[in-house]
């Protein structure tokens, strides 16, 4: 198995883990990690649809994490 395959499997595992989560902030943090791993994988192997998708999802997930922390501060 190549290093890039391993990164692809880690990224896929992170996506799977995010689907098993209930709490929004940990889910989004895992999704951010998944986006970064898939960006690395897609860029390394020249998989344009993969890295474009995750380049678009990354700021959305970061924004949602930021919103989630803001809500926790107001509530808690």
What does this structure look like?
Helix 1 (3-19) packs antiparallel against helix 2 and helix 2 runs antiparallel to helix 3. The protein has one domain (3-75). It is elongated and about 45 Å long. Helices cover 88% and strands 0% of the residues. The chain has 76 residues and is mainly alpha-helical.
SS class: mainly alpha
* Cα-atom radius of gyration: 14 Å
Task: Estimate the mean pLDDT confidence.
Answer: 95
Helix segment tally: 3
Structure in a nutshell:
This protein has 76 residues and is mainly alpha-helical.
Features:
76 residues; mainly alpha; 3 helices; 0% strand
What is the fold's blueprint, element by element?
Layout: H1 3-19, H2 24-45, H3 48-75
Helix pairs in contact: 1-2, 2-3
